[in-house]
Amino acid sequence: MPYMQAVIHEIQRLANTGTIIVPNMASVLCEEGQWKFPHEFNPENFLDDNGDFVKPEAFVPFSVGPRACLGEGLARTELFLVLVTLLRRFQFVWPKNAGEPDLKPVFGLTISPQPFNLESTVFQFKTWMETRFSIVGDNLTS
Ligand code: HEM
């Protein structure tokens, strides 16, 4: 009996040598029943009825468990700072003659958008505040 157990464990040990496991995160990140809009880009997936931010348990892009991403805190801070900085500094516009955006995903190790061009102009924060909130003041910096 001990030898049989040893044989089975040795088979499993060597059978897995060099095996690369790629977990399919999409199975939970797009699971029906877990999300209000499982198959579309819609930030409402993370907002409750009051418009407050909520993070469902099924949100696991950094994985879970003891081998979860060690850089999650750093990555989340970077994502926030880079995106907010770009949106505050620039105005991004879909070019006039570019046709409709091609929303077919590009499959790879991660899912990416098709390559595309955007027009960007330096964002005038002062002008935006004035037009959006009717605030006029010299203390608004651009
Ligand atoms: C948006 C950015 C990132 C995403 C989505 C991400 C996602 C992941 C995922 C899914 C894993 C695999 C966990 C598993 O094996 O189940 C992982 C592992 C890991 N990540 Fe990240 N990661 C990101 C950025 C970073 C950054 C910036 C660092 C370091 C500065 C980092 C360090 C690590 C390390 C060290 C592991 C291996 C943990 C272990 O096996 O014990 N990651 N990450």
UniProtKB/TrEMBL annotation:
Cofactor dependency: heme
Gene3D superfamilies to which the protein is assigned, alphabetical: Cytochrome P450 (1.10.630.10)
GO BP annotations, alphabetical order: organic acid metabolic process; xenobiotic metabolic process
Binding-site residues for heme, renumbered to this chain: 69
Gene Ontology MF terms in the entry: heme binding; iron ion binding; oxidoreductase activity, acting on paired donors, with incorporation or reduction of molecular oxygen, reduced flavin or flavoprotein as one donor, and incorporation of one atom of oxygen
Keywords (A to Z) from UniProt: Heme, Iron, Metal-binding, Monooxygenase, Oxidoreductase
SUPFAM superfamilies from the UniProt entry: Cytochrome P450
GO cellular component: cytoplasm
InterPro entries reported for this sequence: Cyt_P450 (IPR001128), Cyt_P450_CS (IPR017972), Cyt_P450_E_grp-I (IPR002401), Cyt_P450_sf (IPR036396), Cytochrome_P450_fam2 (IPR050182)
Record-linked Pfam families: p450
Entry's family note: Belongs to the cytochrome P450 family.
Record protein name field: Cytochrome P450
Originating species: Muraenolepis orangiensis
